[in-house]
Specification:
Length: about 400
């Protein structure tokens, strides 16, 4: 007798693939992370009646955009925020990857802004990640590198892996709040993000082609409590993580954030974003280097998410939970940008998606304190029956893009 195929992780039961790219309706979107629990319903990619995903629909809109007009809007925005007293006028969060190099460089050199860059440190820097980060600073930027308490961060990473199968969640929270927090501290009224959720698909809570982020992503009302690693503060205390440990992960006070009146914009709204273009720009202007292994595990590309030894586990757990991961993401974006065909995309997904990130497996186990047995136990418990089945002693996906 077969098990009922109940979807775990708040995902839709029925699996749909986009007719144009290789994305599925299982992709979780940038939801409000501090409300994220194991069972909370996830905001996932939406599809139109013809079976086309919201990211591809955004690209239809994108073709009609008058980029000269958008650039004028960007110039006006910069004019409005530019300071003449030598202090910083824009904050650019980033890691020194291709997108943040591009954003900080054009804002400084083309639009005459004085950016401060801020970085939430990776769990464990890779050699190439550290080199690219240093190259970014040497290319001419001031930077604040924030490194969270290593003991607390490792513990939260483990708890997020255990509770949400999302080892990156504490990182995401910390990184989210760092930029507005630093902006308030330094009296900077403009934040520019280098990337945009619209390029990769949007859920119903995120504006499709908007230029600004929703402040609810960054803040809570007075008296409200966040979930961190899927747990409430009093539950975290049972694991030896206390209120005073949580400052970097605690959302901003909504009233304080609103009063600070910070504009949070996405650069791809104003400048036509293409990952390949950003890659060549970064090579030219900061000496950015791609993955020296030729490609990153789990995909065929060599230029994104290179700086953290935990990256591969972010994508692998994503694959376990949603049946699609890094190669799907990369191929879909390249199909939308016209670099590859859908057929090529399908072949790349089938070859690389879900590849196990073995290079840093031992580092990940050491970092989180998980045993190999416990790791696989949690992974296998995280497989949703609407996506996975056991065939001949092996786990296989029930649905694949074709
Ligand atoms: Zn699509």
């Amino acid at each position: 007798m077969s098990e009922p195929a109940r979807a775990k992780w708040g995902l839709p039961e029925e699996v749909i693939y986009c007719k144009r790219c290789v994305e599925s309706n299982q992709r979780m979107m940038g939801s409000i992370q501090h409300a994220d629990t194991k069972d909370s319903k996830k905001d996932t990619t939406i599809f139109d009646e013809e079976g086309v995903c919201s990211a591809c629909l955004y690209f239809d809109q994108k073709k009609k955009i008058d980029w000269n007009e958008r650039e004028q809007q960007l110039k006006d925005l910069c004019d409005q925020f530019r300071k003449k007293d030598g202090t910083y006028d824009v904050l650019v969060p980033g890691s020194g990857g291709k997108d943040s190099v591009f954003a900080s460089h054009v804002l400084k050199h083309k639009y005459g802004m004085n950016p401060l860059t801020v970085t939430w440190a990776p769990h464990m820097y890779t050699d190439i990640g550290w080199k690219n980060f240093q190259a970014w600073i040497r290319a001419g930027f001031d930077n604040i590198l924030f490194t969270p308490n290593g003991k607390v961060h490792a513990k939260l990473t483990r708890l997020a892996f255990e509770n949400l199968l999302h080892p990156f969640q504490p990182f995401v929270l910390g990184q989210y709040y760092l930029a507005p927090r630093m902006a308030i501290e330094r009296n900077i009224k403009l934040i520019f993000y280098a990337d945009s959720s619209a390029e990769r698909g949007t859920g119903k809570n995120v504006k499709m082609s908007g230029n600004q982020f929703d402040p609810r992503l960054y803040s809570i009302e007075k008296g409200q409590k966040p979930f961190i690693a899927g747990l409430l503060p009093e539950e975290l205390a049972e694991h030896g993580v206390f209120q005073h440990d949580l400052a970097p992960y605690w959302p901003l006070d909504r009233e304080v954030l609103e009063k600070a009146d910070i504009a949070i914009h996405m650069l791809p709204y104003y400048i036509n974003y293409d990952p390949q273009k950003m890659y060549y720009y970064a090579i030219e202007h900061s000496g950015f280097q791609p993955n020296p292994d030729g490609r990153s595990e789990g995909t065929y590309t060599k230029y994104s998410s290179l700086d953290d030894k935990v990256d591969g586990f972010h994508y692998f757990t994503w694959f376990i939970k949603t049946g699609r991961a890094r190669a799907t993401e990369d191929a879909s974006l390249e199909i939308r940008n016209g670099h590859i065909t859908r057929e090529e995309g399908v072949a790349l997904v089938r070859r690389f998606d879900g590849e196990f990130p073995k290079k840093y497996f031992k580092d990940f186990l050491d970092y989180t304190g998980l045993t190999e047995e416990r790791f696989w136990d949690l992974i296998n418990k995280g497989r949703s029956p609407h996506l996975w089945e056991r065939v001949g002693g092996k786990w296989v996906l029930k649905h694949q893009v074709s």
